[in-house]
Amino acid sequence: xxxxxxxxxxxxxxxxxPAGRLEALTACPPVCVHRTGREEDRAGAATxxxxxxxxxxxxxLHNKVVHTLARAFGALGARTLRFNFRGVGKSEGAYxxxxxxxxxxxxxxxxxxxxxxxxxLWLAGFSFGAYVALRAAARFPVARLVLVAxxxxxxxxxxxxxxxxxLIVQGAADEVVPAPAVREWAQGLQPAxxxxxxxxxxxxxxxxxxxxxxxxxxHLAPHxxxx
Length: 227
Known about the structure:
Oligomer: single chain
Number of strands: 10
Radius of gyration: 17 Å
Protein name: AB hydrolase-1 domain-containing protein
Largest sheet: 8 strands, mixed
Strand order of the largest sheet: 1-2-6-5-7-8-9-10
Shape: globular
Helix content: 25-40%
Domain AB hydrolase-1: 56-158
Distance between the termini: 16 Å
Organism: Candidatus Muproteobacteria bacterium RBG_16_65_34
Pfam families: Abhydrolase_1
Number of domains: 1
InterPro entries: AB_hydrolase_1, AB_hydrolase_fold
CATH architecture: 3-Layer(aba) Sandwich
Strand content: 15-25%
Number of helices: 5
CATH superfamily: Alpha/Beta hydrolase fold, catalytic domain
């Protein structure tokens, strides 16, 4: 399948997941109009999937960090998809400690790959979503990873390592995920990911979302694929 018709733009969609239907929202960059005056496929050659924070602590696809990441990817010309893990919003099923949520994400990635087979796949996650993203990336090839406040001391990260070029953004004043633990984990990885520490920023990046947006934009802009 080719063309943006197969990836519904700016739409609420319901995907088949392993525990039932999964609620998702898509967004696409502006339509390109070439010199012929003819509208072509949407700009960009990447699709980004973004994972929300913990399902039992208010995490949803509408989380402001998740929304900020989607805006940054969109500004780079990428299509985006945010979705609710099982048991959240209109997604069916129940919370499953990150195990079932990894299966949810893999189903979403397969859905995107079927519709955008030529696109680079970018994968991002915030907090618990970063943990799930790393788990899924060990089983599904992605081109780039963006991990915001990965909850290193809260889950078993010992066997988890990015298999794609990765950006880690960590608030230096994170009250949930200790910044030193994230730094120690990141420094032990080979190849080393890019780690950006945001001074004074807490876990939810209150009043710092514009800086998070700028960091993601600056990191990914040189690697933006061409349509």
